[in-house]
Design goal:
313 residues; mainly alpha; 3 strands
Length: 313
Amino acid sequence: MLSPRLKERILQKKAQLDALRPLPSAVLARLNKQLIIEWTYNSNAIEGNTLTLRETQMVLELGITIGGKSLREHFEVINHREAIALVEDLARQQTPITATDIRQLHALVLANIDDDNAGQYRQQPVCIVGSKHEPPPAWQLNAEIHDWLQWLATQETTMATVELAAVAHHKLLAIHPFIDGNGRTARLLMNLLLLRDGYPPAVISRVNRKGYYQALAAADNNRPTSLVNLVGRAVEQSLDLFLEAGTPQTAPPQVDEEWLLLRDAAQFVPYSQEYLSLLARTGRLEARKHGRNWYTTRRALNTYLDSLEDPSP
């Protein structure tokens, strides 16, 4: 399901990261701190939380209450950090995921927000806003979760980790076992599967929210390729982050990691500078803006080209 080029790059970068391990404790602490903030911000923002990245950081690091933001939004940030801590603990244990693990994660996600439903399967039918998929009735949920766990145990020995994590996360979302908090819980479990196999977490950007929901809709129709590649690209970005932090900067960056002006980057792809600028401004191409100019990398160009290989929308 992963595009061949993306799969090859992920495996190569994972091998490079494994060769660098163990990373210095100070480097690892800095990376984990950064990822907790970005993971929390983006996962909450996808679900409608309006706290900015900076505000999320302030809540997590300083315990500051942000004026004009709801108490629920603050608890969503704090709760997500606690849920990540449980994910990291479960990943270290290297034990099979259980129904209790799923419910404990959800209990943390909704703590102090909806204590009556936190960690409890829903007791009523639900619909997924913007989706044609109809989740199973409440009376089937125990059996559905049991089947999901059985499927997971079977597929862990045959599917590639990134593909397994993406598909497992979609299957759990399709069950929609809780009245609220399903998306955050499913993404936490997706990253639990990645962390257990030595991958860094995949942070799905809120900028890519529309593409994420489109990929989930395609997966509802048995076309998971877009979703798998979307998650794969997020994994690659995290791998790049770890490799950059863990590699001694004694040599120039690799060619595909050098930041290029868009006019220079255009020579490597069949697109004009103007079109690359549009992709950068709409978040479809990884890019950075310095002053008036946008910059991107060969790797980012390859990632965008890979996204065009998906047969599903």
